[in-house]
């Protein structure tokens, strides 16, 4: 089944370009180094999922690029064409001359409705080229104007147009300190709307990814491209073909459906976080060896301390004894609702995941055997001999979300910047509704 | 947006390095012929058409002519003299009516205390009212600061130690490295303002990993509609010829941007309150360099309680000619207040005696009410800044959050 990707705004387009790059290079590696049937089916399955074969034999991404200014799209398309492995469809982009200017209201109330039809047509064309549609993946940031404002509007339209399809939103959260000053307003408005219309919201925090680049990959001058590569790696390892528990030795046909049905078991809890292990620079990759028990032990500790990388995790935090009830939660312990473990690489069938089966990790009202699922693929992903990725619906996003809402609320208390939004038709009432919605989400996760 | 207009798409001949088929998107307005004529016959004659300037005297015709060409929100105005301040603010109103969606940026040149026009306080205060009410963003520039910067660069250029020769084409004040003698007196100062505008629009003109368009500047830096005066600073002022770019010098660029000497108005932002701050970087600078410097500088800069992380950043990959990297810092800072208070003082000194007032009042449509209204507009602006200033150093408690019943 195929996934249609919608890339919105500067961030979404840059992440999307890196994502397709990772996927196409990984798929090619699989075919090159594993000429067996295994590699071939992996290649075929991944290609069906993400790429179109055009009449000329070229591969084009099943993606729609949307931005309100032309520069980023032009660059993404040129970079893709230069790779020689894949490209974007010549017609599958939509851009305007002037950006949304970091103003969510401008994107949501002006640009979104104005270009609804053009964008809808582009997505429909891409959807019609799929034999079977697994779902729609939209990539965007929450800080800027186009990604967040237009992105939210487009997601709402897609929900109306495809009421029975899965829609997964990948959001990039901005740096805590300054990228855009009104980023917290934009985030609050985006998240509260998306919570109503998206099936799940997969979050990457720039701060966390930046730390991975600095400490694990040892990059001295970190550029946005480095940050996007890490995000793309994590996304790719989730979305590339894998065997699920139900499919046994077949590659899963319905990646998004299975992901969502496993992780989003309650409409009140839709925030997903991702962490991967290992991350390292390509130069030291050749000299490293990993064992499955080691990787999984680290990953489990990352989960319960809600750390995003394996360096500097707190080994003191332990799961509380079962049966103590929620009142006695240890501080710093991260309770999960549901987890999805994706293991890729050599000897994957030997990996023992019982550490994640512990009922103490999960909310008491859900049976532990339903809360954890494992996907496996015997092929190494993106040149890592063994790698493990964990998608988790847990309290780990509670703290950053709470911080974000708190800052926005503080700013709202003095009514700073609000006039920029009322100018385009977002009223103070709308702000209050969004705040209420997110406070509700925070409260739900806090009492998990 | 701010790219030059191409007259005819094809057959662009660049003869001898000169651009012939590009036309500037500019409208030149003045009440006397001299300056405009000089520009039209100067080295820029090829990029300007005779149509884009209006030379006849007579305000109404001028305006009719002006609006035909104006599509761009950036304009330069002078706050002290008659044409710049009076006609300039009139054009501003007109632009707001005609193009409400387009950002109106104004670089306003404020006269220094020993200005040669006696009535300049009147003109400035009258213009200030229009700027406060009708512009989206004002970038105030003070003549005295420009003079100081020019002197500093000249000083470096002539007394530099051996080995620290200033690279040609790299100073802010001229294309000749500040050594050419043939320049007119104000060229060097004007060049600084030109560089300000170049850096301001660079992200809209060139690509970069973090774009920052003009409308984003207003969106991020103007928390309250009237408080839109942005203090700007440019660094580096010049590059030395034989030095590469070690990290220390890159960090020095960020430090300089917040020092008193590099501001384009005479003010000290470090000791006033920041409402918001934008860093527009050009050249080979990565996001990690930006983050490191923000972390480093943040403790020494007082930000308003609800905007502790009030940083807006832009990365443009193309540096200005002659530089490897450059930085334009724009700050919405209460340090503009002293400039305004000073201006008000000079205004009231004249106004108390009603000196020179009759020159204004005999112009049709000009009443004394205009003066009092302009003065009260300025006073309330100062008051708004003072109120924000008062919150400095106070520990503001977080606003109580909404409670969710569980």
If you had to describe this structure to a student in words, what would you say it looks like?
- Chain B: It comes from Synaphobranchus kaupii (Kaup's arrowtooth eel).
- Chain B: Residues 10-208 form the Tubulin/FtsZ GTPase domain.
- The complex is a heterodimer of chains A (448) and B (406).
- The model of chain A has no long low-confidence stretch (mean pLDDT 89).
- Helices cover 46% and strands 17% of the residues of chain A.
- In chain A, the strands form 2 sheets. Chain A has a 10-stranded mixed sheet with strand order 5-4-1-6-7-8-9-12-10-11, sandwiched between helices. In chain A, strands 2-3 form a two-stranded antiparallel sheet.
- Chain A has 2 domains: 2-273, Tubulin/FtsZ, GTPase domain (Rossmann fold); 277-389, 60s Ribosomal Protein L30, Chain: A (2-Layer Sandwich), CATH 3.30.1330.
- Chain A has 448 residues and is an alpha/beta fold.
- In chain A, strand 6, helix 6 and strand 7 (167-173) form a beta-alpha-beta unit.
- Chain A has 16 helices and 12 strands.
- Chain B is α/β, with parallel strands linked by helices.
- Helices cover 40% and strands 15% of the residues of chain B.
- Chain B has 12 helices and 13 strands.
- Chain B has helices at residues 33-41, 59-69, 82-98, 120-134, 143-159, 187-205, 214-221, 247-257, 287-297, 337-352, 357-361, 368-390, and strands spanning 5-6, 14-15, 18-19, 22-23, 28-29, 53-54, 74-78, 105-110, 137-142, 231-235, 274-283, 311-316, 325-333.
- In chain B, a hairpin with a 2-residue loop joins strand 2 (14-15) and strand 3.
- Classes of the chains: A alpha/beta (448), B alpha/beta (406).
């Amino acid at each position: 089944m195929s996934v249609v990707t919608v890339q919105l705004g500067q961030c979404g387009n840059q992440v999307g370009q890196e994502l397709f790059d990772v996927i196409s290079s990984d798929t090619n590696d699989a075919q090159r180094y594993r000429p067996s049937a295994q590699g071939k089916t992996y290649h075929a399955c991944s290609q069906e999922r993400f790429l179109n074969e055009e009449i000329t034999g070229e591969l084009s991404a099943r993606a729609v690029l949307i931005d309100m200014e032309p520069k980023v799209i032009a660059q993404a398309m040129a970079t893709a064409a230069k790779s020689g492995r894949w490209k974007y469809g010549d017609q599958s982009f939509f851009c305007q001359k002037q950006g949304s200017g970091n103003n969510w209201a401008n994107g949501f109330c002006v640009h979104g409705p104005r270009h609804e039809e053009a964008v809808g047509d582009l997505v429909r064309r891409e959807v019609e080229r799929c034999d079977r549609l697994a779902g729609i993946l939209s990539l965007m940031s929450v800080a800027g104007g186009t990604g967040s404002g237009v992105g939210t509007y487009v997601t709402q339209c897609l929900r109306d147009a495809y009421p029975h399809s899965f829609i997964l939103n990948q959001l990039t959260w901005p740096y805590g300190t300054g990228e855009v000053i009104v980023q917290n307003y934009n985030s609050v408005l985006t998240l509260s709307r998306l919570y109503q219309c998206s099936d799940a919201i997969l979050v990457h925090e720039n701060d966390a990814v930046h730390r991975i680049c600095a400490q694990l990959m040892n990059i001295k001058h970190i550029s946005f491209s480095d940050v996007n590569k890490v995000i793309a790696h994590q996304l790719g390892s989730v979305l590339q073909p894998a065997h699920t528990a139900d499919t046994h030795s077949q590659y899963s046909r319905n990646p998004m459906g299975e992901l969502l049905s496993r992780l989003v078991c309650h409409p009140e809890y839709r925030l997903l976080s991702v962490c991967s292990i290992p991350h390292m620079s390509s130069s030291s990759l050749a000299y490293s060896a990993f064992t499955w028990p080691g990787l999984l032990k680290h990953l489990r500790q990352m989960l319960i301390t809600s750390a995003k990388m394996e360096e500097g995790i707190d080994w003191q935090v332990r799961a509380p004894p079962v049966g103590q009830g929620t009142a006695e939660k240890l501080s710093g312990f991260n309770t999960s609702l549901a987890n999805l473990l994706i293991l890729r690489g050599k000897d994957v069938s030997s990996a023992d995941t019982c550490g994640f089966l512990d009922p103490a990790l999960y909310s008491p009202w859900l049976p532990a055997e339903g809360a954890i699922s494992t996907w496996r693929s015997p092929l190494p992903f993106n040149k890592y001999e063994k790698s493990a990725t964990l998608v988790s619906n847990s309290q780990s996003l509670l703290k950053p979300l709470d911080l974000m809402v708190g800052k926005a609320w503080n700013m709202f208390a003095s009514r700073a910047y609000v006039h920029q939004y009322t100018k385009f038709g977002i009223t103070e009432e709308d702000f209050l509704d969004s705040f209420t919605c997110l406070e509700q989400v925070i409260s739900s996760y806090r009492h998990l | 947006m701010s790219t030059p207009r191409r007259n005819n798409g094809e057959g662009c001949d660049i003869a001898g390095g000169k651009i012939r088929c590009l036309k500037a998107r500019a409208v030149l307005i003045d009440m006397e012929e001299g300056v405009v004529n000089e520009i039209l016959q100067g080295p820029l004659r090829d990029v300007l058409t005779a149509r884009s300037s209006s030379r006849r005297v007579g305000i109404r015709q001028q305006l009719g002519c002006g609006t035909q060409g104006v599509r761009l929100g950036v304009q330069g105005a002078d706050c002290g003299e008659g044409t710049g301040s009076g006609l300039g603010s009139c054009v501003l109103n007109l632009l707001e009516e005609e193009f409400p969606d387009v950002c109106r940026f104004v670089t306003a040149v404020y006269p220094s205390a020993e200005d040669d026009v006696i009535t300049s306080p009147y003109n400035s205060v009258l213009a200030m009212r229009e700027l406060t009410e009708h512009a989206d963003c004002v970038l105030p520039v003070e003549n005295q600061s420009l003079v100081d910067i020019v002197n500093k660069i000249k000083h470096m250029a002539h007394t530099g130690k051996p080995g620290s020769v200033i690279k040609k084409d790299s100073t802010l004040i001229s294309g000749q490295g500040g050594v050419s003698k043939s320049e007119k007196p104000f060229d060097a100062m004007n060049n600084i303002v030109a560089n300000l505008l170049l850096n301001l629009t660079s992200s809209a003109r060139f690509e970069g990993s973090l774009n920052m368009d003009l409308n984003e500047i207003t969106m991020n830096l103007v928390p309250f509609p009237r408080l839109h005066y942005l203090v700007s600073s440019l660094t580096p002022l010049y590059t030395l010829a034989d030095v590469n770019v070690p990290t220390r010098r890159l960090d020095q660029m960020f430090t300089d941007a917040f020092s008193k000497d590099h501001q384009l108005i005479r003010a000290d932002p470090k000791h006033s309150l920041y409402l918001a701050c934008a860093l527009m970087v050009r050249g080979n600078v990565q996001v990690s360099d930006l983050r490191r410097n923000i972390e480093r500088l943040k403790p020494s800069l007082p930000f308003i309680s609800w905007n502790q992380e009030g940083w807006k950043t832009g990365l443009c990959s193309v540096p200005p000619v002659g530089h490897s990297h450059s930085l334009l810092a724009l700050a919405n800072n209460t340090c503009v207040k002293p400039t305004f208070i000073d201006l008000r003082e000079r205004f009231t000194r004249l106004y108390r005696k009603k000196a020179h007032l009759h020159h204004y009042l005999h112009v049709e449509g000009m009443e004394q009410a205009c003066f009092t209204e302009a003065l009260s507009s300025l006073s309330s602006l100062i008051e708004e800044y003072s109120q924000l200033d008062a919150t400095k150093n106070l520990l503001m408690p977080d606003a109580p959050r909404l409670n969710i019943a569980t």
